[in-house]
Specification:
This protein is of the alpha/beta class. The chain contains 19 helices and 13 strands.
Length: 387
């Protein structure tokens, strides 16, 4: 049996790799070949990668312009492959641009092949247009939702939906303890360790890194004993991040391949919005979430598309309330970041409230075994298997 999986960006590569491992565990003697758009983590799990998409994602309208051509290239490569080698099943993970095209192609030319959408694009958050929602519903045979609100939204719009829970609760099961992580990273027990997560997309080096590092500079002046830890999402970001550390005079260490250790060891984090927010929350690390887009993108979204978002970070989206501070666009200043950070670092009551909110959030993420449940749903949709 051949399964084609399409995803993009660093987080999609991670989710794809977790899924592939689960499919192999659940296949029960069935020979399953995985062909994919993805990255190194999926390749490490045995997928044949048609195009590496971990570095070509973007957030926003203007920001996506440099990626239009490479995105179209991988989409065409995928469709050419599907045409020549029709799979037994297609799994789409997030990554709306190419996946809408691939899903539409499957619906028109290979309607007999089941299409599963796992981790749907956040149409349920953006409140801009129902057009893409309708397209997703039209070509998707089964939508596997990771958020309760996502499941409700797509079910109301006509999709066949299963709420499976969030896969990161599986991933965090084997995270090291705080003591073990600190021992591994050689962090003294009394030292304040702050994780900085400025970028998993190239655009974030421009829009987020300067304000996050300026805030870090001020925090360091107020708390001289602090040390910053920066786990790399992609090795290509090492040089610009190390150059910025020197420029801002930060006491910081850049690490590769030890993200879970950094998170487990940290007292606090200043982070971009994304999947990492949930990983930090599951490890009980208080955080301030920051995001900025090109001002033109924001103007178009607000004035022309009339878009609005209730929240940007996954912890807040899970419970639909502000359990972690979000500083977005004009609010994302070094001064505001510093103020929010110092409150969480120095105010024990504020910290305790965050931990209590994290516990509530955890109750809304489903039971451990998410990836195995997803794999079972997918395998049951293979022709001749689920019968």
């Amino acid at each position: 049996m051949r399964i084609f999986i399409s995803t993009g960006e660093v987080s999609g590569d991670l989710q794809g790799s977790l899924l592939i491992a689960a499919i192999k565990r659940q296949a029960a003697g069935l020979q399953v070949e995985i062909v994919a758009l993805g990255g190194e983590k999926m390749a490490a799990e045995g997928a044949t990668i048609l195009g590496n998409t971990s570095g070509i994602g973007s957030m926003g309208l203007v920001e996506s312009l440099p990626y239009i051509f490479p995105t179209l290239q991988v989409q065409r490569r995928a469709i050419a492959y599907l045409k020549q080698n029709p799979p037994d099943l297609v799994v789409l993970i997030d990554y709306m641009g190419p996946n809408l095209g691939i899903g539409t192609y499957m619906q028109k030319h290979l309607p007999q092949v089941p299409v599963v959408y796992y981790i749907a694009p956040q149409e349920w958050v953006w409140s801009i247009s129902l057009r893409n929602t309708a397209r997703i519903v039209s070509f998707t045979d089964k939508l596997l939702a990771i958020f309760p609100e996502e499941a409700r939204y797509f079910r109301q719009n006509g999709a066949q939906v299963s709420w499976v829970g969030h896969p990161l609760i599986d991933r965090m099961q084997n995270a090291p303890s705080r003591q073990a992580a600190r021992a591994q990273l050689k962090i003294p027990p009394a030292q304040k360790a702050i994780a900085l997560l400025p970028a998993s997309r190239r655009q974030e080096l421009k829009y987020l890194l300067p304000v996050i590092f300026q805030a870090a500079q001020t925090i360091q002046a107020k708390l001289p004993e602090v040390h910053f830890w920066i786990p790399l999402s992609l090795e290509i970001y090492r040089q610009p991040i190390e150059a910025a550390i020197k420029r801002y005079g930060l006491q910081a260490t850049v690490v590769s391949g030890q993200q879970k250790e950094v998170f487990a060891a940290a007292d606090f984090a200043i982070t971009k919005s994304g999947t990492v927010n949930l990983e930090l929350a599951l490890l009980n690390v208080p955080q301030v979430v920051v995001y900025r887009l090109n001002p033109i993108t924001v103007w178009i979204a607000r004035k022309i598309l009339k878009g609005s978002i209730p929240f940007a970070s996954p912890p807040n989206l899970v419970v639909m309330k502000p359990i972690v501070p979000e500083l977005l666009q004009e609010q994302a200043t070094p001064e505001n970041i510093t103020q929010a950070a110092m409150e969480l670092l120095l105010n024990p009551e504020r910290r305790q409230q965050t931990l209590a909110d994290y516990a509530e959030m955890r109750q809304n993420l489903g039971e451990v075994g998410v990836c195995d449940r997803v794999a079972q749903e997918i395998l049951h949709m293979l022709p001749g298997v689920g019968a």
